[in-house]
Amino acid sequence: MAEPISCALRRAALAAILVAAGMPAFAQDTTGQSANQIAAGQSVGEAVLIPNRVIYPGETIESASLKQVTLIPGKHKPDGMATRSEELRGKVAKRTLLPGRYIPVTAIRDAWLVEQGASVQVYFTAGALTISAAGVTLQPGAAGDQIKIRNIDSGKIISGTVMADGTIKVGAS
Q1: Do the Cβ atoms of 148 and 161 come closer than 8 Å?
Q2: Which residues pair with 114 in a beta bridge?
Q3: What is its main location (predicted)?
Q4: Per-residue pLDDT reduced to its tens digit, 20-75
Q5: How many contiguous H segments (helices) and E segments (strands) does the chain have?
Q6: CA-based torsion, 25, 31, 32, 34: positive or negative
Q7: DSSP code for 143
Q8: N-to-C CA span, the chain
């Protein structure tokens, strides 16, 4: 009677370890196949990208660190996983990404456009009026992120949006 409970506990522990370690990609390696064979559908299943080595937090994801594999027929990639080059190009790992595992969308971020402590130009625009000031970023940010900046002249802390050119746009408050 104690043995079935022990087996159940072992199975539950194993399941918890597999979930904590990340979800493996049930796939076959397509490196031996040509792009024409994959495109022609001779290899049944969806082609996805997974890491071929450990990718550490803060590291930019490069194409050399990814491997294309084809999912085993009948398997589909889970929702919330980045598996296409468009989703991964230029992104930075927020946590350790293990080889042979899917990459969760929550485990990657855009590269910082401005670093913490960087000198930036801060702009306020209202109609034809534009005011600019020098500032220092208090946190890093990618394009579109809302970050805090210290105005160098007044010492006030303000919030602004990081623009694509690396400047900060502030609104009326």
Answers
A1: no
A2: 141
A3: periplasm
A4: 445 555 555 555 444 444 444 444 577 888 999 999 999 999 988 999 888 888 77
A5: 3, 12
A6: positive
A7: T
A8: 69
